[in-house]
Known about the structure:
3 strands; single chain; elongated; alpha+beta; three-stranded antiparallel β-sheet
Amino acid sequence: MIANEFEQRWNFPHCVGAMDGKHIVVQKPTKSGSAFFTYKHTFAIQLLAVVDADYKFIYVDVGCQGRIGMQACTITLVYARHLK
């Protein structure tokens, strides 16, 4: 179980994954308006990844619009997992 591995290896109890995200700069998608436009004045998509205690990927999501904050993408991920 992932939580047990995090507690044994990293002394971090009740953790079910380590998550991070990154904006990936892209060319403006056709007819996208400002959907992918970021606060850094570039066009981007977001990469969101979750790893287990051994740094193995357990979830990856690519494609969330750059203008949407990482928090909103994370919330979407959490709700999507609960609906399955």
